[in-house]
Amino acid sequence: MDDKIKIDIQNLNFFIGKQQILKNINTQIPQNKITAIIGPSGCGKTTLLKCVNRLTDLYPQARINGKILIDKDDILNTKEDITKIRRRCGLLSQRPYPLPMSIYKNITFGLTISGRSRKLLQHKRVEYYLRLVNLWDEVKERLHEPASSLSIGQQQRLCLARGLAVGPQIILADEPTSALDPISNMAIEDKFRELKQQYTIVLVTHFLEQAKRLADYVIFMYLGEIVEQGTVAEIFGNPKQQRTKDYVAGAFN
Questions:
Q1: Structural contact between residues 29 and 80, judged by C-beta atoms closer than 8 angstroms
Q2: Quick check: is 109 in a domain?
Q3: Backbone torsions φ then ψ of 38, nearest 5 degrees
Q4: Is 104 inside a domain boundary?
Q5: Is there a domain that residue 120 lies in?
Q6: pTM (2 decimals)?
Q7: How many domains in the chain?
């Protein structure tokens, strides 16, 4: 891989009690690209994302070893505050979870926790981030209505805007369009294509066509292991492993 590496995962193993969820994960995530993680349900895709922003720390009986280097800093062995690590990696979930407050306050909450609390600055930044996710024109007359009044697709874009407001370098997107209608799905995909100019995006998806459309690089996981990784052309056009061939051909999901 010739691209600059943003995330370098080395010999990563993750356990819950005696059960091993991730097995000797080795991969490199390129900067300012979209990396898609594909594989059947329960293969460890979401767990891998949670390792990258240390959400796995919240699991009782969790045990992890190996290295996760972000810009060459091992986040599993660092004195940096975990809150700062998580702020660096914005997480967009499968279903949107707007905060139980207004559309406007969903964005200002993110700005405040990232240290930008001046009211005048916040007002300008609310507009900036809502425009960034193509939501401003749809909500500019409704900013003080509850975020729950938005459609599911609009809520997902609001959650993306809120995540971007804390100033992440990496967007971790866990099946972010699986609950969306086709038009909202297209809006999120188009936004990811634009955002990769500024952010490194790691996308978990069970839609193979989405991975083909969006990804620069693809990782195929099965039963907690990485079976194969490479470009879209390599994984979908000329896979080397039989399990990869079977999966992209639709033999199992």
A1: no
A2: no
A3: -120, 165
A4: no
A5: no
A6: 0.91
A7: 1
